[in-house]
Amino acid sequence: MTKFESSVKEIAASQQQVYDKLSDLSNLEGIRNKIPADKIKNLSFDSDSLTINAAPVGEIRLQIIEREAPESIKFEAVQSPLPFNVWIEITPVDEQHCKLKVTLGVEINPFIKGMLQKPLQEGLEKMVEMLASIPY
């Protein structure tokens, strides 16, 4: 499995506040307006899963498979052209601040890795930026 890591973003909220918001995906209704409509369509979610239609790959469904309060949330693709998982790590800085990092693990062969590395890394950066901009 090939791993890609986002940069680390500091958030002006406690580790517990960020975990509480992100560990229940139904809390993410506010992100709809931050996602470019030409990139992702038909975003839907409930407390444990997220489904998006992302051009050009099609429909992707992620399911939360593990919650480790208040440090991490792990997702696994249950519907995707490639098997992958995503985990969000939340580390405390102090009582009112924490740091957030997103890691992607994907099963790709070395030939495809060269083509996908840049778009996957850019996607991770956009994801961590979006997560850091959510009001907690």
| Poorly predicted spans | none
User: How many strands in all?
Assistant: 8
Proportion of residues in β-strands? 35-45%
What about the largest sheet?
8 strands, antiparallel
Summarize the amount of helix as a percent range: 10-25%
Order of helices and strands: EEHEEEEEEH
Strand-pairing-aware structural class: alpha+beta
- What's the end-to-end separation, in Å? 32 Å
H/I helix tally: 2
Mean pLDDT: 91
User: What integer value in Å does the Rg equal?
Assistant: 15 Å
- Approximate shape: globular
What are the defining features of this structure?
about 140 residues, 2 helices
Describe it for me?
This protein has two helices and eight strands; from the N terminus they run ββαββββββα. With 136 residues, it is α+β, with helices and mostly antiparallel strands. Strands 1, 2, 3, 4, 5, 6, 7 and 8 form an eight-stranded antiparallel beta sheet that branches. It is globular and about 45 Å long.
List the helices and strands and how they pair.
Layout: E1 2-5, E2 9-11, H1 15-22, E3 40-45, E4 49-54, E5 58-68, E6 72-79, E7 84-94, E8 97-106, H2 110-133
Antiparallel strand pairs: 1-8, 2-8, 3-4, 4-5, 5-6, 6-7, 7-8
Structure summary:
The chain has 136 residues and is an alpha+beta fold. It has helices at residues 15-22, 110-133, and strands at residues 2-5, 9-11, 40-45, 49-54, 58-68, 72-79, 84-94, 97-106.
